[in-house]
Amino acid sequence: MSCRMNGILVLTVMLISGCVQPKTLEENGIMNIYGVDIAGDDQLKTTAVFYKFGAPGQDPSSLVTGQGKTLSKGQKRMNYKLGFQLQSGAIELELFGKKAAENGLIDYLRAASRHPRASNNRLLAVSDTTAKNLITKLDGLPNINVNQALPNIIDVNSHMNVIPEVTLHNFQKLYYEPGIDPVMPILSYQNERTRLTALALFKGDQLAGQIPVDQAFYINVLHQNIRGLQQEVQLPLQPLKKYLLKEPKSDQTDFYTLFNIKKGEGNIKLVNKQNLHFHTQLNFEVNILELTESVGLQKPAAINAFEQEIEKAIKEQYEQLLSKLQKWNVDPMGYGRTYKTQKRNSPLTESEWRDKFPDVTFDVDVNVDILDQGMTP
Question: Where is each Spore germination protein N-terminal domain found (predicted)?
Answer without folding.
Answer: 23-188
